[in-house]
Design goal:
Layout (H helix, E strand, L loop, with lengths): L5 H18 L12 H10 L5 H14 L3 H5 L3 H4 L9 H19 L7 H4 L7 H12 L8 H9 L8 H11 L5 H14 L54
Length: 246
């Protein structure tokens, strides 16, 4: 694609957004939560883990520790059994307890609602803070995770790999009232269609506005025919000559 003006990029971005709205009209966070504190903890747990695995663990966790005051009284070792099925559970247990204690000590048990305050909490970076601000407090933000970054680069909405720079590019391209939906829709598209290794470009309705369409990912292997017995035949072996034989 030749160098694109910002005006043309914004026009293309609106076509992309329309396609995403058709695909994911009800896009929203897939994490289950009942309060800002529970969303914060669930988002911390979701790093390098699936939302499904987090949602499987949090009902018991939040039954035992429903708010910051309750979790602040726990030790990491007491929290660990509830999240053992999630990757990096020991580190996440330490951060969860430390975050709960910080919320109680600094903010009277209430999750703060500003980027500056959220990012002072243990284990909370800009992405996690944006998720909480958007989904718990209704703020217009764009959280950039691996899916958002990858899909945005493939769509030529950004060329950056740094999440903060990707966020700025998306903010320049889309009106603020579209940011929260865009975040959720790009995540879903990255999980379901524009996957990391083998994007399904052949079925993607965004292809007309995607410079990467059909140019990225590993080629899909054709299905092998099965025998009558239902087995895939083993590849034929080459015959090798034995030494001394003609």
């Amino acid at each position: 694609m030749s160098r694109e003006s910002l005006a043309k990029k914004r026009e293309r971005a609106q076509r992309i957004l329309a396609g995403l709205r058709d695909l994911y009209p009800d896009a929203k966070t897939e994490l289950d939560f009942g309060s800002p504190f529970q969303l914060l903890i669930a988002t911390l747990l979701s790093a390098q883990a699936t939302d499904v695995s987090v949602n499987a663990a949090t009902p018991a966790l939040f039954a035992a520790y429903p708010d910051a005051e309750a979790m602040a009284t726990a030790t990491p070792e007491e929290v660990e059994p509830y999240i053992r099925t999630i990757g990096l559970f020991r580190t996440k247990a330490r951060n969860a307890v430390a975050t709960a204690r910080a919320i109680v000590e600094r903010y009277g048990g209430e999750v703060p609602d500003s980027m500056e305050e959220l990012t002072t909490l243990p284990g909370v970076g800009r992405k996690t803070a944006n998720v909480v601000l958007a989904n718990a407090f209704g703020r217009e933000t764009i959280a950039v995770d691996t899916h958002v970054g990858r899909v945005s680069r493939r769509l030529a909405l950004t060329r950056h790999t740094d999440p903060d720079k990707v966020e700025l590019d998306l903010q320049k391209t889309f009106p603020s009232e579209q940011w929260v939906f865009l975040h959720h829709a790009l995540i879903l598209h990255g999980r379901r269609v524009c996957t990391a290794r083998r994007p399904a470009c052949e079925v993607c309705p965004l292809c007309p506005d995607c410079p990467s369409c059909g140019k990225v990912g590993e080629p899909r292997r054709p299905r092998q025919k099965r025998t009558e017995a239902g087995r895939i035949p083993a590849p034929a072996r080459r015959k090798t000559r034995q030494p001394g034989r003609e």
